[in-house]
Amino acid sequence: MTALSAQTLESIQYAAELIRKSQRAVVLTGAGISTPSGIPDFRSEGTGLWSKVDPMEVASLIAFRYAPEKFYEWIRPLAVQIYNAAPNPAHQALARLQAAGCFKVIITQNIDNLHQKAGSSHVLETHGTFRTMSCTQCFERFSSNGFIEPYLQEGKIPYCPRCGGILKPDIILFGEQLPVQTWNEAQSACRNCDLILVAGSSLEVLPVAGLPLQALDRGAHLVIANHQSTYLGVRADVLLLGDVAEIIPLLAEQVLHAGSAESCHD
Ligand SMILES: [Zn+2]
Q1: For the segment 9-49, what is each residue's pLDDT rounded down to a tens digit?
Q2: Interval between CA 180 and ligand 1 midpoint (Å)
Q3: Mean pLDDT, to the nearest integer, of 240-249?
Q4: pLDDT tens by residue, 42-62
Q5: How many Å apart are CA 224 and CA 33, to the nearest integer?
Q6: What distance in Å separates the CA atoms of residue 109 and residue 79, rounded to the nearest whole number?
Q7: Ligand 1 mean position to 62 CA, how many Å?
Q8: What pTM value is reported for the model?
Q9: Distance (Å, rounded) from C-alpha 229 to C-alpha 36?
Q10: What is the pLDDT of residues 102-137, one digit of tens each?
Q11: How many Å lie between the centroid of ligand 1 and the Cα of residue 68?
Q12: Residue 1: what pLDDT?
């Protein structure tokens, strides 16, 4: 059963047509694609994460350097949620579309690893990841495996096995540069695409929110699926308002069933 209107269903069909006709589509996802998996928006107010502390006091790079234990204590409930979360039908539908060749790259603002858990490859994580950690003294990078479990279970702060420095998860804090290579790849993908599908992003956090503009400026189509309108709604070829965990699977179904088996293009 679907609560979607006939008009939305028609729009989904049109969006599917655009995706099938595209040759170099890219996908951009934000927090909204993971809220159906129970993950709160790390950067938004009103999620409970910010209710007790000022984010700049715990989640900025300066704050981390000054009082890493405060940061680790604050982010632990979110880290536990991320670690235990499972991908939802929207992540799965995007993985299916990617496997069918509808697009190569997923650019995401999320740090939750759910696209990868759903089977997607080539995910550009513009706000970093919890999967790896870097030493704040010697800059050596480590897999979070082995460090993350004692932290999640007992709150044990991870230290560098090489030099004893404190390890910082490779998520991007306030006041921190985006990962350069990832960001360059994301920009290049957007400048060279002929369609951009924005799913679950309210396009409020810069600079990622500006990526669809780079695509639009070069004549790409824009499809937006989100629970609320965004600043680019007026420029979208198709605007799909509603629950992405419902809309994206329907969209994938339309794209793939209109073609031969599991291939995106005829
Ligand atoms: Zn070190």
Answers
A1: 999 999 999 999 999 999 999 999 999 999 977 656 555 56
A2: 22
A3: 96
A4: 656 555 565 667 777 778 889
A5: 12
A6: 16
A7: 18
A8: 0.92
A9: 18
A10: 999 999 999 999 999 999 999 999 999 999 999 999
A11: 15
A12: 46
Q: Which of 91, 115, 127, 221 is catalytic?
A: 127
How many angstroms is it from 186 CA to the middle of ligand 1? 29
Q: Which two tokens stand for residue 62?
A: 């300066």
Is 127 marked active-site?
A: yes
What separation in Å is there between the alpha carbon of 60 and the centre of ligand 1? 20
149-164 pLDDT, tens per residue? 999 999 999 999 999 9
